[in-house]
Design brief:
This protein has one domain. Strand 5 and strand 6 form a beta hairpin. It has four helices and twelve strands; from the N terminus they run H-E-E-E-E-E-E-E-H-E-E-H-E-E-E-H. It is α+β, with helices and mostly antiparallel strands. It starts with a helix and ends in a 7-residue tail after the last helix. It has a seven-stranded mixed β-sheet with strand order 7-8-1-4-5-6-9. It has a three-stranded antiparallel β-sheet with strand order 10-11-12.
C-alpha cells in the first residue's frame, strides 16, 4: 500500500530508530583574523541516516552531496587537482571538529516534500503515476520510494559481509 510522501518518510524514521547515523557538515567561508586568512573549516550541523541518494534527518529529507572522511592535513604530492581538492575538504572537516576518519556529508541539498506531494520533482524525488518515487542514479529510472527505502534500511541495519 502506497502512502503519501510524508507518510513514507514518517514510517522510514520509525524503522530507522536506533540505526547508525552519519554527520552533516557545512563549509565555512575563509575568514580573516588580523589580516591573515584562516584555513577553511567544515562545521557539524546535524546528522542523519544515509540511504543511498538520500539523507533522512529527524525533520528533513536531503539529497546527498559529497561524502568525505575527516583527515588531518598532511602534505602529499597529488597527480590530479581533484585529489588535492578532496584532501583539502577532508582537512577542513577535521579542522571543523570532526574526528579523524569520521564520515562527513557536505554539499547536501534540502528536498521539498510538499512539492513532491503536489506532483513536482525535488532533487531525486518525484511522483510517478501517483506513487512517490526516487531516481536512484543520474542515469537510472525512477523506483517506488517505499521499496527503495525498505531495501536501504535493511542494508543499513544488516550491511553485507565485508562492507564498512
Amino acid at each position: 500500500m502506497t502512502g503519501s510522501v510524508h507518510d513514507v518518510f514518517t514510517d522510514a524514521r520509525r524503522r530507522l530508530a536506533g540505526a547508525p547515523r552519519e554527520r552533516l557538515g557545512s563549509p565555512l567561508t575563509v575568514r580573516r583574523v588580523l589580516g591573515f586568512a584562516r584555513a577553511p573549516r567544515v562545521t557539524p550541523v546535524g546528522d542523519g541516516w544515509h540511504l543511498g541518494v538520500l539523507l533522512v534527518t529527524d525533520d528533513a529529507v536531503l539529497a546527498i552531496g559529497e561524502i568525505v572522511r575527516a583527515r588531518q592535513e598532511v602534505r602529499r604530492g597529488y597527480t590530479a587537482q581533484s585529489q588535492r581538492e578532496r584532501a583539502e575538504r577532508q582537512a577542513a572537516a577535521f579542522r571543523g571538529g570532526f574526528a579523524e576518519g569520521e564520515v562527513v556529508h557536505i554539499g547536501w541539498r534540502m528536498l521539498d516534500l510538499d512539492a513532491v506531494a503536489r506532483g513536482e520533482a525535488s532533487g531525486p524525488l518525484a511522483m510517478r503515476d501517483g506513487v512517490p518515487s526516487v531516481r536512484w542514479s543520474a542515469a537510472g529510472g525512477y523506483r517506488p520510494l517505499e521499496d527503495y527505502l525498505a531495501e536501504r534500511i535493511e542494508l543499513l541495519r544488516q550491511p553485507p559481509q565485508g562492507a564498512s
